[in-house]
Design a protein that fits this description.
Oligomer: single chain
Mean pLDDT: 81
Helix content: 10-25%
Number of strands: 10
Shape: globular
Order of helices and strands: HEHEEEEHEEEEE
Low-confidence stretches: 1-36, 38-47
């Protein structure tokens, strides 16, 4: 698995991020799931994914990512927010990461990374869901265009309120903010958020998006961009 991942990581130097193989995650019905969309059994029971109580990246999560990416020389994986977990024969961890190809002037991008940790503490990446949204590199303090990365990914009251206002007139889907990725002061404020998005249809299955909300100086808010994650299967 790690040899395959190393080849994939190397290809990221010239193309976007690709999948790392078959995930070990299963829904509560026992069927295999390969998508950035959470399982329809996203209920918090054993067998389904449970939202993290806190999205903060702890030393334990950093160590887990380091263990799962050991030997992958093509790109650097930096955990940004801990999203959810699933109890199987071990644990699946869903983590939002910045992935930076190891090349000059590399552009970091966000991806949802699934790491399987077995009962013996071994860890490996089983799936990557990529997006085109750029993230700050380790060498930069601000996003491209002046976005500033927060100290923690926990959603602020201001960002949550802006998303709520911007969503009042939406009819196609609802957005639940899970992590704050950055803010940008312009003539007003832009908020970049990782959201769990649910289509406004019967039994709509939630999935993850990166949503940008603009709040003007008068407090008016609107969603200006939505970026979805893509999973490339073998």
């Amino acid at each position: 698995m790690k040899k395959i991942l190393a080849v994939i990581a190397a290809s990221l130097m010239v193309v976007s991020f690709a999948s790392c193989g078959q995930a070990k995650k299963t829904s509560s019905s026992g069927t295999t799931s390969k998508s950035s969309k959470p399982s329809s059994s996203y209920s918090g029971v054993t067998g389904g994914y449970t939202d993290a109580e806190s999205t903060k990246i702890t030393d334990e999560i950093k160590a887990l990512v380091e263990k799962a990416t050991k030997g992958l020389d093509g790109a650097q994986y930096t955990p940004v927010a801990y999203i959810s977990s699933q109890v199987v024969a071990g644990t699946n961890h869903l983590i939002l990461c910045k992935i930076t190809p190891v090349t000059p002037d590399a552009v970091s991008k966000y991806a949802l990374v699934t790491i399987y940790e077995d009962l013996d503490g071994n860890a490996e990446i089983t799936e990557i869901s990529e997006t085109d949204t750029e993230a700050p590199s380790e060498q930069s303090e601000e996003f491209v265009g002046g976005y500033t990365e927060p100290e923690t990914p926990e959603v602020t009251k201001e960002a949550a309120n802006a998303l709520k206002k911007a969503s009042e007139t939406l009819t196609g889907a609802t957005h639940e903010a899970k992590a704050l990725l950055g803010t940008q002061v312009v003539s007003g404020t832009n908020y970049m958020l990782l959201c769990k998005t649910t289509p406004s249809v019967p039994n709509g299955e939630p999935y993850y998006t990166i949503v940008t909300v603009y709040e003007d100086l008068k407090g008016n808010c609107e969603i200006t961009d939505t970026s979805e994650f893509r999973t490339t299967e073998e």
